[in-house]
Amino acid sequence: MQVELIQIRNDAPSMYCDFVRAGHKGLQHIAYWTQDYDADLARMEAEGFRQKMSGKVGANGRFVYFDREAHPGTVIELSEVVGPKGRLFDLIRESSEGWDGAEPVRPFRDLSTL
């Protein structure tokens, strides 16, 4: 399991801003990682999920948030984890193995270097 802490640093429209402005705190979404983004996206859309926010982080790092939400914190993200983004998540997992709690905040590696 990987937990990401997201800090809003501007007023650009996003689901993160909507969540905070509505007075919510805590979990905003849960992500499912995929190596077959196109097939999984098509399957979810066929099941009635509609895209609300999407983007791309580096090469092969597409993601989408869906608009279904039963209560605050239940947004579902589909996140592509191949290419540099997949390698970064592998590095994050590897760095957690045997972690003793020291240095809890570490820089996020530049995806262009992977």
Structure, explained:
The chain has 114 residues and is an alpha+beta fold. The protein is 27% helix and 20% strand. It has 3 helices and 4 strands, in the order αβαβββα. The chain has a 4-stranded mixed β-sheet with strand order 1-4-3-2, with helices on one face. A hairpin with a 5-residue loop joins strand 2 and strand 3. The mean pLDDT is 88.
Biggest beta sheet summary: 4 strands, mixed
Count of discrete alpha- or pi-helical segments spanning 4 or more residues? 3
Calculate Rg over CA atoms. Answer: 15 Å
What is the distance, rounded to the nearest whole angstrom, between the alpha carbons of the first and last residues? 22 Å
Q: Provide the β-strand percentage band.
A: 15-25%
Structural class: alpha+beta
Series of H and E elements: HEHEEEH
Poorly predicted residue ranges: none
Strand segment tally = 4
Helix proportion of residues, in percent?
Answer: 25-40%
Question: Looking across the biggest beta sheet, what order are the strands in?
Answer: 1-4-3-2
Label the overall shape. globular
pLDDT averaged over residues: 88
